[in-house]
């Protein structure tokens, strides 16, 4: 059973690494990976919960410029799998995911020289006009570094699941309490990272509108999301009508142009 789960995790990891091969599938996002990992290890409900929690934690982990965020693929898959195997909740998945993501990101940088070497070969093929070799080098540049490090995640699950489970089960109560507290803080930190990137004078009013709607009207996040979509549609329609009425269109007339 464990071998089958390991093979499925290997396939899931490979699919997540190649999420942009045929377009942006978003299979590499924690909200998707958590559910699929839970399905593989036998607890879909906990996988969905953990995936949603990890999505909040990693929502602000976006590569901008030279910044490379922690690897959310390995963190989500292993964090979710280990937490479910140990019978723990999303807080434990969060506590495990970030160290795993940071460690994997550090190891995967070893593949950068390989990518650069293949990219320079593509440059030479482009200079001489060899389209076939350029296409082959292009695909190899994307696949080879990923294929080298893909086995790390399934092997870590196969050899580390029992060890992690034993450590978590023997953990003192005060450490478990600390994990639960940090599990509530990390998603807030991830959302704060996202808000820092998108927040400005135009959208900040909608942030507070959603906050006070939940706080004082008791509406859940799903209800707020529905109202937000309706409000967005209304505002877009108003803006379109304003732009249409504010612009003067001059059209050429026919034989009765004088009227």
Main attributes?
259 residues, mainly alpha, 76% helix
Mean pLDDT across all residues, rounded?
Answer: 81
| Share of helical residues | over 70%
Determine the structural class based on helices, strands and strand pairing.
Answer: mainly alpha
Rg calculated over all Cα atoms: 25 Å
> How would the global form be characterised?
flat
- Give the topology string: H per helix, E per strand: HHHHHHHHHHH
* DSSP strand content: under 5%
User: Helix count, per DSSP?
Assistant: 11
Number of DSSP strand runs: 0
Q: Mind describing the biggest β-sheet?
A: none
The residue ranges in which pLDDT falls below 50 over 5 or more consecutive positions are none
- End-to-end distance, in Å? 84 Å
Describe this protein's structure.
The protein has helices spanning 2-17, 30-41, 44-58, 72-85, 90-108, 112-128, 131-149, 152-169, 173-198, 204-217, 221-246. The chain has 259 residues and is mostly helical. Helix 3 (44-58) packs across helix 9. The longest helix is centred in the last third of the chain and has 26 residues, at 173-198. The radius of gyration is 25 Å and the shape is flat. The N and C termini lie far apart (84 Å). The mean pLDDT is 81.
């Amino acid at each position: 059973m464990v071998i089958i789960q390991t093979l499925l995790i290997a396939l899931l990891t490979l699919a997540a690494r190649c999420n942009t091969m045929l377009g942006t599938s978003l299979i590499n996002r924690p909200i998707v990976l958590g559910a699929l990992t839970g399905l593989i290890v036998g607890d879909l409900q906990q996988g969905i919960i953990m995936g949603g929690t990890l999505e909040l934690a990693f929502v602000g982990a976006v590569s901008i410029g030279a910044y490379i965020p922690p690897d959310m693929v390995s963190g989500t898959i292993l964090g979710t799998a280990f937490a479910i195997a140990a019978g723990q909740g999303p807080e434990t998945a969060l506590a495990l995911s970030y160290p795993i993501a940071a460690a994997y990101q550090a190891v995967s940088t070893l593949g950068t020289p390989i990518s650069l070497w293949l990219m320079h070969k593509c440059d030479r093929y482009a200079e001489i006009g060899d389209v076939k070799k350029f296409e082959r080098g292009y695909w190899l540049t994307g696949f080879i570094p990923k294929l080298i490090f893909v086995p790390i995640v399934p092997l870590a699950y196969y050899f580390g699941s029992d060890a992690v489970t034993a450590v978590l089960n023997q953990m003192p109560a005060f450490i478990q309490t600390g994990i639960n507290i940090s599990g509530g803080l990390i998603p807030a930190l991830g959302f704060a990272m996202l808000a820092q990137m998108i927040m400005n004078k135009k959208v900040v009013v909608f942030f507070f509108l959603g906050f006070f709607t939940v706080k004082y009207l008791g509406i859940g996040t799903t209800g707020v999301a529905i109202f937000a979509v309706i409000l967005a549609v209304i505002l877009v329609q108003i803006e379109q009508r304003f732009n249409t009425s504010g612009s003067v269109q001059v059209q050429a007339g026919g034989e009765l142009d004088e009227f």
